[in-house]
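chain below, 101 aa
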Amino acid sequence: MDQTQQMRIDRGLAVAGITLLAIMVCSRLVLSNSHYHTMRRETGLDVLNLTVWLEIAWTIGAATFATFRWRFTRLTFRVVLALNGLIVGVLLAQLYSTLGS
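prediction:
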């Protein structure tokens, strides 16, 4: 794999990670501002549920990519991977505590 193709994949994964992070935050904000069962709240809840699975899938894929190409990744990708990894850790901890009780 040449360096330009590597940079394209790196940039694409970073943009996808930032987009998922923004979608998760925005859908959470929609849920917090809508207190009643409205279509806006239901849509926000659906988006949040879908984003959780997309976040986990993205983090697994990006971590796999980073495992094999860590030396060639840029700082932007590493920061986005760390932030999304932190979010997935919090989601998995919340799932563990929910299933444990």
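Residues 31 and 42 are 8 Å apart (CA to CA). The chain has a mean pLDDT of 84.
thats it, cya
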